[in-house]
Amino acid sequence: MAKCAVCGKGAHFGNNVSHSHRRSNHMWKSNVKSVKCNVNGTPKKLYVCTSCLRSGKVERA
């Protein structure tokens, strides 16, 4: 699973809890996209989460 190159956000793990309170493993995947970004003036492909894209932390190429 990819991680955000800016904030490091990745997959989160926990339990699904049913109505009868039985627990099963669950994984929540973060919304990470492959994006061309300008890094020191050169375009580079990075994995960036959508919250970093919307907040303007990344300059798109």
TrEMBL record:
Protein's UniProt keywords contain Glycoprotein? no
Q: Which SUPFAM superfamilies does the protein's record reference?
A: L28p-like (SSF143800)
Q: Give the CC-aspect GO terms.
A: ribonucleoprotein complex; ribosome
Q: Name one GO molecular function term.
A: structural constituent of ribosome
InterPro entries recorded: Bacterial_rp_bL28, Ribosomal_bL28, Ribosomal_bL28/bL31-like_sf, Ribosomal_bL28_bact-type, Ribosomal_bL28_sf
**HAMAP family given for it?**
Ribosomal_bL28
Protein name according to UniProt: Large ribosomal subunit protein bL28
Q: What is the protein's species of origin?
A: Pseudobutyrivibrio ruminis
Whichever gene encodes this chain, its name is: rpmB
